[in-house]
Write a structure and sequence with these properties.
- This protein is about 50% helix and about 15% strand.
- With about 260 residues, it is an alpha/beta fold.
- The chain has a single domain, classed as 3-Layer(aba) Sandwich (Rossmann fold).
- The strands form two sheets. The protein has a seven-stranded mixed sheet.
- It starts with 5 loop residues before the first strand and ends with a helix.
- The relative contact order is 0.22.
């Protein structure tokens, strides 16, 4: 009998059109959670990410900025608010081409696995909406029900490849017959461990690497509201825990909602 196979997808600029970690900057600023200066810093980072990708140094700075921002937030509240606001903030950013590709892999009998350095509070609900079988994402340390601001597990660069290899050993995937998709040169390690790597909306370095190695290059350009594109499937269990991006998102929305209630809005 043939071994099972999977399609591994990065999230930001591969499945969705923005950085999921930075997508909530306006909500933070409107709710008074962060300063205008911090909001502009996030907006600039989003621009750099979208136009040219983020290298290792930029990703490290982004990780430090976001993890410090969410220190002390209540975990249960974060989870609740993210699920309430996901459809208005992140869901409309999903690429139509990515949804079609996911459907093709599912029809071929492959598992769908999202592998992202962004936070599981955002990544996991998106995975559920897409019908993903598993999710791997960054986790924040939790003490007494609150985030400490320390990263417990960072699903980034080489660690993505290690996580995929560990999952393959656990599930039995034949990696030589698996597929992987990403936009960033930081995910070369993830692309190298499968037999069918694809560069999606690649940054300059990944495009160069893809050309040198003969990897196909795909262009995704049509964001679509996910609920209009496909029926929402039942939630599936994932292997991710807690994380950076969703924690920041939820905190900003929570603060804004509380201010509105306090002012009778």
């Amino acid at each position: 009998m043939s071994r099972p196979t999977a399609a591994f997808f990065d999230l930001d600029k591969t499945i969705i059109a923005k950085s999921s970690t930075l997508a909530f900057s306006r909500e933070f600023q409107a709710g008074g959670l962060i300063s205008r200066r911090a909001m502009l810093r996030s907006a600039y980072a989003q621009f750099v990410f979208f136009t040219g990708g983020a290298d290792h140094d930029q990703m490290d700075k982004m990780r430090e900025f976001v993890s410090q921002l969410c220190a002390g937030w209540d975990v249960a509240t974060v989870r609740e608010i993210v699920h309430e606001t996901l459809t208005t903030i992140v869901e409309p950013l999903v690429y139509d081409e990515a949804v079609s590709l996911i459907e093709e892999h599912r029809a071929a009998g492959r598992d769908i696995v999202i592998v992202s350095a962004s936070g599981a509070e955002v990544v996991e609900p998106i995975g559920q909406l897409l019908g993903a079988d598993r999710v791997i994402a960054t986790r924040m340390e939790i003490v007494d029900g609150r985030y400490t601001g320390t990263i417990d597990y960072y699903a980034y660069a080489e660690e993505k490849a290690r996580a995929i290899e560990h999952l393959a050993e656990t599930v039995g995937y034949d990696l030589s017959e698996c597929f992987a998709y990403s936009d960033s040169v930081t995910d070369v390690f993830m692309l190298e461990v499968v037999g069918h790597p694809f560069a999606v909306n690649p940054d300059k370095e990944l495009r160069r690497t893809a050309t040198e190695r003969g990897w196909p290059v795909l262009s995704f350009v049509r964001p679509v509201a996910l609920r209009r594109r496909i029926p929402v499937p039942p939630a599936k269990p994932t292997i991710a825990a807690l994380a950076v991006g969703g924690a920041v998102a939820a905190g900003g929305v929570l603060w804004a909602n509380r201010r509105r209630r306090d002012h009778g809005a």
